[in-house]
Amino acid sequence: MRRRATAIAAVLALAALAIVAAASAKVDRAAGPSATASADTQLISCGKTVTMGMLAPITGPAASLGKLQTDWAKFYVAAHNKVKKNKHKLRVQYGDTVLGGPGGTAEAVKAAQSLGSNVLGTVGPAGSNEVRATTATLKNAGLGFVSGSATNTELTTDGTRTRFFFRTVPPDAAQGTSVANFINKKLKFKRVYIIDDQEAYSTGLADTVQQKLRAAGVTVQRDGVSQQQSDFSSLIAKIPRDTQLVYIPWQLPPKGKAFGEQMRSAGKSNIILMGSDGLFDDAFASLGGVYASSFPTSGTHPVVKAFKKAHGGDPEFFGAPSYVAAQVVGGAIDRACKDGKASRAEVRAQIRKTNLKKTVLGLNVSFNAQGDIKGGQFGIWKANSSGSFLPVG
Amino acid sequence: MADELTPQVPPDQPRIGVDEWVASVEGRRERYRGPVGWARRAWDTAPPAVRLLAFLVPAAIFPLVTTEGNLFRYGLITLVYALLGLGLNVTVGFAGLLDLGYIAFFGFGAYTYGFVASTHTGRHWQAEFAILLAIAVAALVGLIVGFPSRRLVGDYLAIVTLFFGQAFVVFVNNANRIDFPFIGHTDLTGGANGLDNIDPLNVFGWVVNTTKEYYWFTLGAFTLVMILLYFVSESRTGRAWKALREDPLAAEVMSMPVNRLKLMAFVFGAAIAGFAGAIYGSVQTGAFPGDFDVGLLITIYAIVILGGAGSLAGVIVGALIVNGVPELLRDPNQAEWVFYTTLVLLVLVKVRPWQKLVAVVGGTLALGFALVAIANAWFPRWTAGQPGEGKLAHWVSHWMLLPSHPTQIANWAYALTIALILVLTLLRGWARTIVMIPTIYVAAFAWENLLLEQTAGATRFLLLGALLVVLMNARPQGLFGTARVEIV
Amino acid sequence: MNWSLFWDLTVSGVTLGSVYALVALGYSMVYGILKLLNFAHGDVYMIGAFMGWFALHWLGGPVNPSAAAWLVVVLMFAFAMVACGGLGVVIERFAYRPLRNAPRIAPLISALGVSFFLQNSALLLFGASFRDYDTFHLIGGKTYSYKDIFLSVPQLLTIISAVALMIGLTLLVARTKIGKAMRATSFDREAASMMGIDVDRVIASTFFIGSALAGAAGVMFALVFGQIYHFMGFLAGLKGFTAAVIGGIGSIPGAMLGGLLVGLAESYATGYLPQGSTFQNLYVFALLIAIILVRPQGLLGKADVKKV
Lengths: 393, 488, 308
Known about the structure:
The structure holds 3 protein chains of 3 kinds.
Chain A: H1 2-28, H2 38-41, E1 44-45, E2 49-56, H3 63-82, E3 89-96, H4 105-113, E4 119-123, H5 128-141, E5 145-147, H6 154-157, E6 165-167, H7 172-186, E7 191-196, H8 200-215, E8 219-224, H9 233-238, E9 245-248, H10 253-265, E10 272-275, H11 282-285, E11 291-294, H12 302-310, H13 320-336, E12 341-342, H14 344-352, E13 379-383, E14 389-391
Parallel strand pairs in A: 2-3, 2-4, 4-5, 5-6, 7-8, 7-9, 9-10, 10-11
Antiparallel strand pairs in A: 1-12, 11-13, 13-14
Helix pairs in contact in A: 3-13, 4-5, 7-8, 13-14
Chain B: H1 20-30, H2 34-45, H3 48-65, H4 68-94, H5 102-116, H6 127-149, H7 155-174, E1 178-180, E2 184-186, E3 195-196, E4 202-203, E5 206-207, H8 211-234, H9 236-246, H10 248-253, H11 258-284, E6 286-287, H12 294-307, H13 312-328, H14 332-350, H15 354-378, H16 391-396, H17 407-426, H18 429-449, H19 458-474
Antiparallel strand pairs in B: 1-2, 3-6, 4-5
Helix pairs in contact in B: 3-8, 4-8, 4-11, 4-12, 4-13, 5-6, 5-7, 5-11, 6-11, 8-9, 9-11, 12-13, 13-19, 15-18, 17-18
Chain C: H1 3-34, H2 41-58, H3 69-96, H4 105-126, E1 131-132, H5 135-138, E2 143-146, E3 149-152, H6 153-175, H7 177-187, H8 189-194, H9 199-225, E4 227-228, H10 233-247, H11 252-272, H12 280-294
Antiparallel strand pairs in C: 1-4, 2-3
């Protein structure tokens, strides 16, 4: 009947459209990153606008993280384009990696494949597994990629992506070591409970800290929760009352806050709670008395203040390294474009030569041979009763 | 409409009391209308080899006319998902077993391949052995899972297989911390970080490492599996499966070995999934726990059901739609074109006769220009917003209101669009035509001001969800499935 | 025997179990009448939580509500339940009714489509960030205790309202005319329509009630555990579905029992088993498998006798 014919016609039309769009995409829009060696060294003329790619979890379960990262990156691009000295305006092509979503890491690879041939450098991806999955694509395309949140130590030590991958966050090994040292030497605790959230970022940190603490003779118990979970009451009931510290290296500050609140209502508020840099956020700090590790970011840095003002007082610290990543890539593109033309290989070389002073992270940013920040350090912060973090170690 | 031979029954009622042959005569006759009818007639009468070529030839030409990025997103991933769909088709489509843990077999294939061919574990088997091992392991696991499921029926089978799928994910996520009593600490799967640095396929010496080569390899594999499944579906086993699907009790009474058939369906589906997994693992050079969870399962189910359970060609079309449509909407420029083209097509096809069509199109355009003129004169904030990039967006901005702070009003417009569309399906006649005009305008308004921003995000999946609902309503048996007839 | 741990776990198990029971009820009722697994149910639950949040903020917000706290909570529940009930009816009318006589898997896919659509619409409209109920400011952190048993106000509220809703539902199904119509329709739809029962209306009412319960569950969950976001319906839907099957799908007391069991199983598994929290879903599913293998129709389900 007509409905069926209509449906079929509509579907055929859509399929035809898909094929036409796919085939013609190379005509009206720049083609995808190609595997030939020329993509690496092909010179693209830097006209009025130059394009930077950004791979972030814009939708899906981690969309809240993606928003923080894209907010900070957008902030950088807007600031960059306001500066008259910059001849080329920066433009961002977003790729949605749907971290933790139904397609798995395949979405990240598809997002990387969707970057046009006018993209000169990329910020992201956000997850360590996404970095692993997209390495082949981005390397084949000759693109340098700078992540603001992929902290897995092996990413820079296994040698597969040297000189392509950089990151503006110190690796888990550094963070884990600072945390373990703080717990063991400064706080001198002997009974610790570690809870990871089953994601790669979390288990990596948890494993490092657990190993170092156990080596120092501390009693460590370990369990995990799912990132989707909001009910921690049974787990909290299980934590022995004589535990001195609970370490939760999680990614989502609201979950950390919920955990702290549930600990309080269970009457276990005497146990110290400590989070990782994923929990370094106002939401978690509002609990008061909690610890978190993070960069020596300064709340008085002018960029941070301007950002807070533009975002209703929320500094969204998790996204700050993405600002620096955008700064790195944007700056590299600017420098490579000085002679009016740039290739991806040039941009990569320029990224390698990055030397930023007094970034929002409170550090100077330059990269070592593996792609990590030179001298990247984590500090330990403690939240005071009015809900702001103050550095303690 | 169709002929007087059979009483006219609306399409959503069961054709009770009409036996299959007569019902299909009615169906066959109505297909002989117009270009669509001609296409269907050609499809039905063509021999299977021709039908295979109808798919193969465009698929083979595709990499030569498109870019690498598009080849990967629209070609390679679609093929991998379609391959998965073929396997699920055996379990669900041929044998009628609701297997909700299917993706675990996919994962087993990927992890097994990675276990014997990656830098992470240090073993570098050649692909022909590694892939065979992956298929064998997946089939074995299918056998193990299938064993207790023989006693379970329908929804209970679903639950058990769902459990198995979840168990797989948790196992694979934590399998780098197992302490076996005698062997000591082992790292089976790399844990939450996944099994990375998986080798590219090394088939008899040919190392597959560009997208084009992967595409050719996957296309070849897919064609092989399709041909195999075609012969299986025409064989005794295939017919037994179909009997099992239609009525398990009758099949058992007819002395078909129901339990053995169920087991075979499981194993077959699992083996195909294992094959797809091995290819996927090497394409991505890694296997990560999050890739094999319920979300992907739902996607593959959508592919199979959309195409029509039991139909091989349907799986391809299903994969193209479910994978291609969200990809198409990634780029805001392309998305603009897709939206307006689809809108125009829909109106063209659905609104007959031509006088009504002119009225609707004219009315919508007039409404738009009038509103923009009014806004320009008295409410400048309503047209102060930024149009999108590209020529089409520029043209549209003359017709569409673009407020300077669109978020709140666009949210309400979105809700209003949904309400109007639902109301539209309830109206008939002139009321319908008149309501169509503001519906189109509000929909375009919501698109321009809200959905367009998020094409790289929520809009893609939202539209896919809506597409699924609409398609199921228009054609519940899927695109290529056979309409089920109830015999009372 | 550490009684304080036991009671803590039991209380949290019963609280969570009440939420699951309400979600499972919706699944069971719809399955009983339509033999359809409504995948979109978890997302209706999510919408309920968001509706409750909006109600809370239209009434002044948690810190400075414009009415007494108890009134605000009642209004939140009412608003969420009505909104979700309406949503359920709309979903049924447009996504499931046309597919009532289609092969069983078609409405399943339609449900999937609706679920996807709801999730991403929520993401589009409400944004990606978590929203907080801030129960602490609204209701306060008072805890009631009896010997070793501690109950916080939100937990108590959840358990009491869940029990009240379940009693209300049982009375509705057993004593009222519409309840009788529902039972008849779930027993044999054609015979019921031949007896003069308006099947469409009965199904719409079933969806209304089931979805309203899910909405209430969403508000309850948010009151106890604090946060809502667009993806929260996924896990709750899965657990609710499991609970419905454990109790016997199609049976209302079964859904309640199933929900309670799942909540308690999760809690005890987390508390007593090694790495319990990491593997808690697995332990729940193992319990499920065990129950099904022993009693395939679920604990309170009826053994299906098929006429040949």
